[in-house]
Design brief:
Structural class: alpha+beta
CATH topology of the largest domain: Jelly Rolls
Shape: globular
Order of helices and strands: EHHHHHHEEEEEEEEEEEEEEEHEHEHEE
Distance between the termini: 16 Å
Number of helices: 9
Number of domains: 3
CATH class of the largest domain: Mainly Beta
Helix content: 25-40%
Strand content: 25-35%
Oligomer: single chain
CATH architecture of the largest domain: Sandwich
Radius of gyration: 21 Å
Length: 335
């Protein structure tokens, strides 16, 4: 059963890298959050239960395993299937805890951490299907889409305003202040602006990160290089994460539409459409038909409930579906 929104190959790779100490902090954070919220069916899809033991880098006692799991997730009991996961990652997690690099997000207030540049940062997160609006001290506004993590310093320094998109999607309306340039760090990209509105998107399971300008002008720069793109309304900058390449193309979509539950798809593969709906509404989409996911979608949806959107997509793409709890099961109507 294919789980839309969960890249099982990426998770497998991250688990092996984490056990060897090869992940950076952002990747470790995403992995732990993903595994901590995964269902038993999803875990079995990532690895058959018997294979988990093959990934264990070293023997780990059950007592230590439970301690690490409780520390990271805040839960007292460790599900049986989760034991295999935490055996694969336990050595790396234990090092994080020992070095006081453990982090957790609280629903009621942002977490605060100290990073290498000695600035103190507040972390804001949303779950799938959750939106949030943050108003900064300078009156800039940031809209967070589902499954998004953003970091904002407790105080901007005197030379500028800098924030970080750790993962997810955000629409930013920047208050104009030429004396304090506004910048966003995202993956290996830095976005520099004065006063403008733009959308930025970078989910861990997607191979690209994008910046699209709604108004004004921004510079999208590859970190550590002089290479940059100047983006204006109607253009989108794309960063390919593996190749570390920047490119620009025309894109006149309404990039803040997701804030109002408005979606515009122009020959977009169904798998990408379902992924966007997953982030916006929190529903999971599952199917065994890979060819079905490749079908292009050309449609506009405004202020519709997710079941209404899926019903329209089913008629367009000739598939049937059933909904159980927050999971939509899709199958071809030809079967």
């Amino acid at each position: 059963m294919r789980v839309i929104g969960m890249d099982t190959q990426l998770i497998r790779s991250y688990l092996k890298q984490m056990a060897a100490g090869g992940l950076d902090r952002q990747q470790e954070e995403w992995l732990l959050q993903t595994l901590g919220t995964a269902t038993e069916d999803e875990l079995l899809e990532i690895y058959p239960e018997a294979e988990w033991q093959e990934t264990v880098p070293a023997p780990v006692s059950q007592r230590e395993l439970d301690r690490v799991y409780t520390k990271v997730t805040g839960k007292r009991h460790t599900p049986v299937l989760h034991i295999y996961i935490w055996r694969a990652a336990c050595a790396a997690v234990a090092l994080l805890l020992t070095g006081s690099l453990y982090w957790a997000y609280e629903k009621q207030r942002p977490a605060t951490e100290t990073v290498n540049d000695l600035a103190r940062w507040n972390t804001y997160s949303t779950s799938e299907g959750e939106n949030r609006v943050i108003t900064l001290a300078d009156e800039s506004r940031i809209y967070l889409n589902g499954a998004t993590t953003l970091q904002i310093p407790e105080q901007f320094d005197k030379d500028g305003r800098r924030i970080r998109l750790v993962k997810g999607e955000a629409f930013v309306v920047v208050a104009h202040d030429p004396t304090k340039p506004f910048s966003v760090e995202m993956d290996a990209v830095r976005v520099n602006v004065l006063g403008t509105s733009f959308n930025m998107r970078s989910y861990p399971e997607e191979h690209i990160a994008t910046v699209a300008v709604q108004s004004g002008k921004v510079a999208m720069q590859l970190t550590g290089t002089p290479h940059e793109l100047i983006l204006t309304p109607g253009t989108m900058g794309t960063f390919e994460k593996k190749g570390r390449l920047l490119s620009m193309r025309e894109n006149r979509s309404k990039h803040d539409g997701w804030i109002r539950k408005e979606f515009y798809f122009d020959d977009v593969p169904l798998r990408d459409v379902l992924r966007r709906l997953h982030y916006a509404y929190g529903f999971e989409f599952r199917t065994d038909d890979e060819h079905l996911l490749d079908r292009p979608v050309k449609a506009t949806f405004k202020h519709m409930k997710v079941n209404e959107i899926v019903r329209v997509l089913g008629k367009m793409g000739q598939f049937r579906y059933t909904v159980k709890d927050s999971v939509v099961y899709i199958r071809s109507s030809q079967k």
